Amino acid sequence: MSRRLVVVDDQALLDLLLWGSNHWLQCTPIPTHRVPERIADVLLSQTTIGWDNLFLGRWSKHWTTLQLQYLQPNHIEVNNKNHGLSLSSNIIRLMWDHYYKEWTTRNKARHGKDADDKAQRRLEKAHRGIRDLYDLKPKCSL
Fold first, then answer.
1. 72: CB partners within 8 A, 6+ apart
2. In angstroms, rounded to a whole number, what is the distance separating the alpha carbons of residues 49 and 44?
3. Residue 25 burial (CB < 10 Å; 0-12/13-18/19+)?
4. pLDDT score of 18
5. Domain map of the chain by residue range?
6. Residue 19 DSSP symbol
7. Which residues of 97-134 are buried (b: 16+ CB within 10 A; e: fewer)?
8. Which member of 2, 43, 49, 125 has the greatest number of CB atoms within 10 A?
């Protein structure tokens, strides 16, 4: 996995990204009256697409447009780390890298990290299955 630097110069854009994601994760509605007018289109379009889709890599095109609209008037050089399309791609990659690390950590914890550990986990699973079958014996009539 490669690490990429993600540059978000527009604080309002970063705040919306964190704020909208947090509201979706907490299952709370996003209070639209608290959003600056210049980022209302991003909020509306991402809400229409779904904030859950943000985590699947489906971002509104308004994110990239707004990033460019911020960079140019503020005389910030547009480069491969901060232009709109690169920004969303890099954030998506960063999130997916994190998901992959979490998934592999979970799998190692559940299934074992090496051959001996995996064999031990399979043995424990088989023992649980056998115990469960013995627990069912009194419930079965012959």
1. 78
2. 9
3. exposed
4. 87
5. 11-111, 113-142
6. H
7. eeeeeeeeeeeeeeebeeeeeeeeeeeeeeeeeeeeee
8. 43
Q: Which one, of 21, 72, 73, 71, lies nearest residue 42 by Cα?
A: 21
CB atoms within 10 A of CB 81: 12
pLDDT tens digits along 46-96: 999 999 998 888 999 998 888 888 888 888 888 877 777 777 788 888 888
How far apart CA 78 and CA 58 sit, in angstroms, is 23
Q: 3-class SS at 96? A: helix
Tokens of 12: 């309002």
Amino acid at 92: I
How far apart are the C-alpha atoms of 35 and 15, rounded to whole Å?
Answer: 10
Report DSSP state, residue 73.
T
Token output for 125: 């699973």
